[in-house]
Fold this protein.
Amino acid sequence: MKFKKTLLIEMIVIGPPVVIVDEIVEHNRWAVRHRMIFQHHGRFYETKYRVPATELQDEQPYDAEPDEIECPEVWPISKKVTVYEKLPLIEHGKNCPKVLHVGPGYLHGDDDDTPYGIDGIAYCGRCHWTLA
Ligand SMILES: [Zn+2]
């Protein structure tokens, strides 16, 4: 869908709630490029614009663009994100996750949290991980 350049500039100035996302996608010596997602009549559209990286440059967003700018429709899609965070210090045999014994075949007692060995490798009696 095409949008007037003046309307898009107005959105940049106003920001939320019309603008859903305005993120910097590239920052080089001369320009900062943005990707903006905005809402229009319950639908979402994407546009990209650039602003000068320094105050010395006389440039406005969409300066080199025509008066009407094609903005593709986009859809909000939720994604699962995996993050890696530090956990509290785990001490094997004390506060590591206790593995319950299910069935036979264990080489140590269910209530024995002390290390045990198999083929010269030491394992934690609680979580059954190898111990370094
Ligand atoms: Zn452990």
User: Anything to note?
Assistant: The chain has one helix and eight strands. The helical segments are 5-14. Residues 92, 96, 124, 126-127, 129 surround zinc ion (CB under 6 Å).
